[in-house]
């Protein structure tokens, strides 16, 4: 579905990602793990076309940009933005149409369905700026689900969620996968990455490991990262 | 009550005031719509910068005896795209760069004016507005620009929201966000050039920034902020004009003060917990 070949990203001449090659196949759940500053978000932005790779190539096969649902980190959005939860979630449909997008009945139904699925129906008319961090995360996730016809790209989806809601969220991702969708997810939570992902990409500027999660748990990079996070 | 009716009847009995009102209402409406996006994207400074560039362009055009609007529209449009590029590339440096460009444009305008015509009434009109001196061709141009802005805004509303709220998400979904940024910047440039004649180069940016900020004090959804700022902007324009006519204050300045009053009122209401 997506093939990255020798992808490097650099900011002001400093390399954030170096020579990473891997492939996402339809139906995969690829979890990207690694320490802070290991280039996970940069690589994802690169795959989404938000950053230009300084070297290498990214190619899509049978995938259009408008079929991707992206969950960014919240930092990029203004905290005081006046927008209702419904408006934000519905905007997930905006990539689907031509330059003058008007939403149809099925778009609105889809937005409402995902709002209910994430348990934020009572907040529907509330303003994004009045929500807590965890509530915002669920709103943005609902928007990503609305947008994702084929692929979900999630940058730390469970950050800021309490454990109960986090496990609900993993259940939602599982059901999306059963419905035939592909997931690429950046995760800080190594345990659930191994549990839910069928493939792991371990980054530390360069790819330390890419392969099935069953092999990853016996690899050196896993032991190092796991040791570091247990300390 | 009858007094107020009589007052407005008198106001509207003058042809030039009706013209000014029609153009003013349209420009106020467009400025408010664009303002919501500009304020939320932290592009407010672009509006301010453009009006100064507009003044510089007008001053040069006047001293060379060229048609003022035909010169300033392309110049301001070009600067809008330049300023957008600057603020997209880096936030902090962008701010300073806009300040540099706008004060330089103003300075060049002032020098050209003093070397040629001197500070005559025309120049003063461009700086502080001359709403009652709109010519017939000004009216046609303003109406055309305003209608174009309204149509494009309504058609692109959903995309404009998506790009304003979260540009990265919109881009990731295949929306060409920079095209919408250019659209907003271009429309802003047109509204500023047209509005500058009536509000003055020094005051036009308030027409863009005030209504959006005021509406945001009280309203919680994007749609209600857009609608409220459009209504507020038109109301403040009418109140400002009426005051200006009633007690002979300058029109542009009176409109700004009406907007300021609305802002104070809405801020107080928002602080008191009034939210929609």
Write the layout of secondary structure elements.
The complex is a heterodimer of chains A (231) and B (276).
Chain A (H helix, E strand, L loop, with lengths): L1 E10 L2 E11 L4 E5 L6 H8 L7 E6 L7 E4 L13 H6 L14 H13 L15 H15 L3 E5 L7 H16 L3 E5 L3 H7 L2 E6 L1 E7 H4 L3 H11 L1
Parallel strand pairs in A: 3-7, 3-8, 5-6, 6-7
Antiparallel strand pairs in A: 1-2, 1-4, 8-9
Helix pairs in contact in A: 3-4
Chain B lengths: L1 H10 L3 H26 L3 H20 L4 H22 L1 H25 L5 H8 L7 H20 L1 H9 L1 H6 L4 H23 L4 H15 L3 H26 L3 H21 L5
Helix pairs in contact in B: 2-7, 2-10, 2-11, 2-12, 3-4, 3-5, 3-10, 3-11, 4-5, 4-10, 6-10, 7-10, 11-12, 11-13, 12-13
Task: Characterise this structure.
The complex is a heterodimer of chains A (231) and B (276). With 231 residues, chain A is α/β, with parallel strands linked by helices. Chain A has a domain at 1-63 and 153-160 and 182-231: Rossmann fold, CATH 3.40.50. Chain A has eight helices and nine strands. Chain A has helices at 40-47, 85-90, 105-117, 133-147, 163-178, 190-196, 213-216, 220-230, and strands at 2-11, 14-24, 29-33, 55-60, 68-71, 151-155, 182-186, 199-204, 206-212. Chain A has a six-stranded mixed sheet with strand order 5-6-7-3-8-9, sandwiched between helices. In chain A, a hairpin with a 2-residue loop joins strand 1 and strand 2. The longest helix of chain A is centred in the C-terminal third of the chain and has 16 residues, at 163-178. The model of chain A has no long low-confidence stretch (mean pLDDT 88). With 276 residues, chain B is an all-alpha fold. Chain B has a single domain (2-271), classed as ABC transporter involved in vitamin B12 uptake, BtuC (Orthogonal Bundle), CATH 1.10.3470.10. Helix content of chain B is 84%, strand content 0%. Chain B has 13 helices and no strands. Chain B has helices at 2-11, 15-40, 44-63, 68-89, 91-115, 121-128, 136-155, 157-165, 167-172, 177-199, 204-218, 222-247, 251-271. The radius of gyration of chain B is 19 Å and the shape is globular. Chain B starts with a helix and ends in a 5-residue tail after the last helix. The relative contact order of chain B is 0.16. The mean pLDDT of chain B is 86. The chains are: A alpha/beta (231), B mainly alpha (276). The interface between A and B is medium-sized, with 38 and 28 residues.
């Amino acid at each position: 579905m997506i093939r990255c070949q020798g992808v490097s990203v650099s900011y002001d001449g400093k390399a954030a990602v170096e020579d990473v090659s891997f492939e996402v196949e339809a139906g995969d759940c690829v979890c990207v793990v690694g320490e802070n500053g290991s280039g996970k978000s940069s690589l994802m932005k690169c795959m989404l076309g938000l950053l230009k790779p300084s070297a290498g190539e990214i190619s899509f096969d049978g995938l259009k940009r408008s079929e991707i649902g992206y969950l960014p980190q919240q930092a990029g959005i203004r905290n005081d933005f006046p927008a209702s939860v419904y408006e934000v979630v519905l905007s997930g449909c905006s990539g689907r149409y031509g330059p003058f997008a008007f939403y149809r009945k099925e778009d609105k139904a889809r937005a409402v369905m995902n709002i209910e699925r994430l348990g934020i129906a009572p907040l529907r008319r509330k303003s994004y700026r009045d929500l807590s961090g965890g509530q915002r995360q669920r709103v943005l996730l609902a928007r990503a689900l609305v947008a994702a016809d084929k692929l979900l790209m999630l940058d730390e989806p469970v950050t800021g969620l309490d454990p109960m809601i986090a496990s609900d969220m993993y259940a939602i991702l599982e059901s999306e996968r059963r419905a035939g969708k592909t997931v690429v997810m950046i995760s800080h939570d190594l345990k659930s990455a191994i549990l839910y992902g069928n493939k792991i990409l371990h980054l530390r500027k360069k790819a330390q490991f890419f392969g099935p999660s069953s092999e990853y748990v016996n690899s050196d990079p896993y032991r190092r990262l796991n040791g570091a996070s247990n300390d | 009550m009858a007094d107020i009716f009589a007052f407005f009847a008198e106001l509207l009995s003058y042809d030039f005031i009706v013209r000014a009102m029609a153009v003013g209402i349209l420009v106020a409406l467009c400025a408010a719509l664009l303002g919501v996006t500009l304020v939320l994207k932290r592009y407010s400074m672009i509006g301010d910068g453009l009006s100064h560039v507009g003044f510089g362009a007008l001053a040069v055009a006047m001293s060379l005896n060229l048609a003022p609007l035909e010169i300033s529209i392309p110049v301001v449009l070009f600067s809008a795209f330049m300023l957008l590029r600057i603020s997209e590339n880096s936030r902090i440096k962008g701010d300073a760069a806009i300040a540099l460009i706008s004060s330089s444009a103003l300075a060049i305008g002032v020098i050209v004016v003093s070397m040629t015509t001197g500070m005559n009434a025309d120049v003063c009109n461009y700086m502080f507005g001359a709403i009652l001196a709109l010519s017939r061709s000004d009216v046609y141009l303003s109406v055309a620009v305003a209608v174009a802005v309204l149509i494009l805004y309504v058609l692109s509303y959903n995309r404009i929201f998506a790009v304003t709220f979260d540009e990265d998400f919109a881009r990731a979904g295949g929306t060409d966000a920079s095209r919408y940024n250019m659209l907003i910047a271009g429309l802003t440039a047109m509204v500023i050039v047209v509005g500058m004649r009536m509000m003055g180069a020094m005051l036009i940016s308030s027409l863009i920034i005030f209504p959006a900020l005021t509406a945001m004090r009280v309203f919680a959804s994007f749609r209600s902020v857009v609608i409220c700022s459009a209504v507020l902007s038109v109301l403040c324009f009418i109140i400002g004009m009426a005051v200006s006519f009633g007690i002979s204050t300058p029109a542009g300045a009176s409109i700004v003060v009406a907007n300021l009053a609305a802002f104070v009122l809405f801020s107080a209401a928002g602080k008191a917990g009034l939210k929609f």
